[in-house]
Amino acid sequence: MDLGDNAIDVTELRRRYGTSSAQGFEAVRGVSFSVEHGELFALLGTNGAGKTSTVELLEGLAAPTGGRVRVLGHDPYRERGRVRPRIGVMLQEGGFPSELTVSETVQLWAGCTSGARPVGEALDLVGMVRRRDVRVKMLSGGERRRLDLALALLGRPDVLFLDEPTTGLDAESRRDTWELVRALRDEGTTVLLTTHYLEEAEELADRLAIMHQGRIVTSGRVADIVAERPSHLSFTLPAPLSAADLPSLAQLGATDRETDGRTVRLRTRDLQRTATEALMWARHKGLELGGLDARSASLEEAFLHIAQGLEKTETAKGNAR
Ligand SMILES: Nc1ncnc2c1ncn2[C@@H]1O[C@H](COP(=O)(O)OP(=O)(O)OP(=O)(O)O)[C@@H](O)[C@H]1O
Predict the structure, then answer these.
(1) Ligand 1 pocket, 210 CB below 6 A?
(2) Residue 225 has what pLDDT?
(3) Where is the ABC transporter domain (predicted)?
(4) How confident is the model at residue 11, as a pLDDT?
(5) Whose alpha carbon is nearest atom 7 of ligand 1?
(6) What are the contacts of 200-207 at 24+ separation with CB within 8 A?
(7) Contact 142, 173 (CB under 8 A)
(8) Has residue 3 got a pLDDT over 50?
């Protein structure tokens, strides 16, 4: 393996569906990013943003209409034979013959995979050993996702593509999958994850990119993306006080505030300072603040802010036309 290059390099990637450029639809519109070896990179986006269309190009399932993709230093479409044995792909909809049992399915796949893990090991990784003799048609949606993951892991891939890996899983199975994905990353596997669950990206991703209408609108480390958003401090004042009795926003180190009756929500770039000022004020006055909640910004909030901002821009453009 050439460790000098990134595991994945994507430059100005484009994908158009339909043959005619006049009638076709461009789902990927000049996307660039790279993923280092051993890194876990998440691709997030609004519905129809172009995540799956992008990932399919990385998996070599289609040729791009523009730009360049390299996976492990090779073109995944033209040099499929060199890339395919070293990647693991978990698609959104794994189509299994429904009459086969779980272990027969893994056996079948193992027959087509060079250096495959033993069936028992693959099933153990995803917690499906006890379901090995169950026919695929009898599995729940979440169990099918886990079987899909077992198949993607069979060839001990250097690069693992996970397209919405925990959709349909209950909270406990989702946590188990996260633990497994983290362990694989810690062993050096590069992971490219697409997900609708922001919490999942927040838990797992070293870096992420957010797509909207075929383009990357923001990318970076989770902490950096989140740091651009303010934190919140909220509490309820005891009667008969109101927000007007609070110190000024400048004294509290807050940027602005919302009130709902006696409940106050302060936005701040310095949560520790704002919380300290508010608590010292309350102590000085001998007051008890109800429902006190100090919260750093989350990825969900950053994502909604970006998505809502884009919506407003598009509405404004539409109105201007
Ligand atoms: N085969 C196709 N022919 C024409 N348009 C397509 C085709 N596949 C996808 N599209 C369109 O391309 C756009 C991007 O779809 P894609 O599935 O890549 O988005 P996504 O970000 O994965 O969405 P989701 O999160 O909803 O799964 C959508 O508008 C979709 O309707």
Answers:
(1) no
(2) 87
(3) 8-238
(4) 97
(5) 17
(6) 200/42, 200/166, 200/174, 201/42, 201/44, 201/299, 202/298, 202/299, 202/300, 203/178, 204/40, 204/42, 204/178, 205/40, 205/41, 205/42, 206/39, 206/40, 206/41, 207/35, 207/39, 207/41, 207/42
(7) yes
(8) no
Pocket test of ligand 1: the residue of 16, 17, 43 to mutate, having most ligand atoms within 8 Å of its CB, is 17
pLDDT in the model for residue 317: 61
Q: Is 47 in the pocket of ligand 1 (CB under 6 A)?
A: yes
> Is the confidence at residue 287, as pLDDT, over 80?
yes
The secondary structure element, H or E, covering residue 268 is: strand 263-268
Distance of alpha carbon 202 from alpha carbon 204, whole angstroms: 6
Ligand 1, atom 9: nearest CA belongs to which residue? Answer: 53
17 lines ligand 1 (CB under 6 A): yes
For residues 85 and 37, give the distance between their C-alpha atoms in angstroms, rounded to a whole number: 17
* 114-160: pLDDT as tens digits: 888 999 999 999 989 999 999 999 988 888 888 999 999 999 999 99
User: From atom 1 of ligand 1, which residue's Cα is the shortest distance away?
Assistant: 17
| pLDDT tens digits for range 23-34 | 789 999 999 999
Q: Is the CB of 16 under 6 A from ligand 1?
A: no
